[in-house]
Amino acid sequence: MASELGKKVLYTARVTVTGGRAGVGRTEDGSFEVQLKPPVEFGGPGGGANPEQLFAIGYAACFESTLRVAARRAQLDPKGTTIHAQVRIVPRDQEPGNTLELDLDITMPQVEDAERGAAIVRQAYQLCPYSYATRGNIAVALTLNGRSVPPSEAPVREVPEEGTDD
Predict the structure, then answer these.
(1) Model-level pTM?
(2) Which strands, in side-by-side order, build the sheet including 147-148?
(3) Which of 148, 67, 71, 141 lies closest to 100 in space, CA to CA?
(4) 161: confidence class by pLDDT, cuts 50, 70, 90
(5) Hey, CA dihedral for 117, 118, 123, 124, is it positive or negative?
(6) What is the pLDDT of residues 14-31, one digit of tens each?
(7) Do 139 and 104 contact (CB within 8 A), yes or no?
């Protein structure tokens, strides 16, 4: 099967939502169903999942998987890696409507070299499908073990293996 742009499709997620922010979302295969409730900040009752929470989970899960691949390529053990994500809805600067901001607070206990770790995070940012899809559209703040890692907009070269002079 090919995409509308003629690319080979690797996977397609299919869901159905009825009722918008105060509705139900379910996967086509029946493996996941969620009651959606607007947050209190939007005049809703809270106490349920909302699209921003689901986006945060999806982005963080995808980013961590990509981060683990980049870490292994650099001969670094990704064991114990966690990501805490925050998605905020904020007003757009120059036009009506809202947009999102995202913080990914990454903990990699096995990373001792901050620069090497930052290079791995930047590489994951370049490779992650969620990062690619949102790049230039939402503000993203990355931290690794409590230190800011500005995301690079330029392609990042491979992270050198430990002990090389590359």
Answers:
(1) 0.87
(2) 82-91, 98-107, 139-144, 147-148
(3) 141
(4) low
(5) positive
(6) 999 999 999 999 999 999
(7) no
* Helices marked H in 33-128: 51-73, 114-127
CA angle 82, 140, 144 (to 5 degrees): 35
> In the chain, what are the domains?
1-49 (2.20.25.10), 51-148 (3.30.300.20)
Q: Are strands 139-144 and 98-107 parallel, antiparallel or unpaired?
A: parallel
Q: If you ran DSSP here, which 8-state letter would residue 153 be given?
A: S
In this structure, which amino acid lies at residue 67?
A: L
| Cα–Cα distances in angstroms (integers) from residue 140 to residues 51, 54, 104, 134, 136, in the given order | 18, 17, 8, 9, 9
CA-derived radius of gyration, the chain: 18
User: Mind listing the pLDDT tens digit for each residue in 46-93?
Assistant: 888 999 999 999 999 999 999 999 999 999 999 999 999 999 999 998
Please provide residue 107's backbone torsions phi and psi, each rounded to the nearest 5 degrees. Answer: -120, 120
Please report how many Cα atoms fall inside a 13 Å half-sphere around the Cα of residue 33, on the Cβ side: 6
d(Cα 131, Cα 6) in Å, to the nearest integer?
A: 22
